[in-house]
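Data's thin. Show one?
=====
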Amino acid sequence: MGDIRQVIAQRASQEVCDGMIVNLGIGIPSLIPDYIDQSIRVLFQSENGLLGFGPTPLNNPDGALCNAAGYPVSIVKGGSYFDSATSFGMIRSGRIDLAILGALQVNMNGDLANWIVPGKRVPGVGGAMELAYGAKNLIALMQHCQKDGRPKIVKKCTLPITALSCVTKIITEMAVFEVVDSNLNLVELMPGYSLEDVKNNTEADFNISSQLYN
């Protein structure tokens, strides 16, 4: 199946459609540009002030051009860069078609916890709260379970909440879920995993969509 993070990013890249403006969070989402078909016209936006960045440069990366995670990126034709105030203005005014963020936990209502684990030092929530409410659509990416085996798709988030009822889709290495009217629907099994695998590793209740068998 390959590296789990790469598998999730590759699947998530299928959610990016022609003509979109898409914000990518740090972690797994930052890998997505490497899997976008070159025929798709998309502008990736980053809250540190980039619009129109592309895959990781293969040679001689410009240290001044990086995404929100601090990794070097390339700039596509028509791309631009600007200050963070302008960037957050784009987010808060609803100009982002899709936000794809990493997650620590998501519950069956689509509540998102993705910014802190109590006891660990972090620089802050970043742009996650603005993206959760400002983007037209939000997809959460994460490994299905924690390192100790506990599920990350839960009945109730135990970690500090970033935003309530904001996630519309969850993609893990095991499955793809949609959140509709506070109900979790399993819509796709990832290669190598069975329905039993998903049931045994998901705390939250979920429905099985008819499209799973189409």
Notes: The chain has a mean pLDDT of 91.
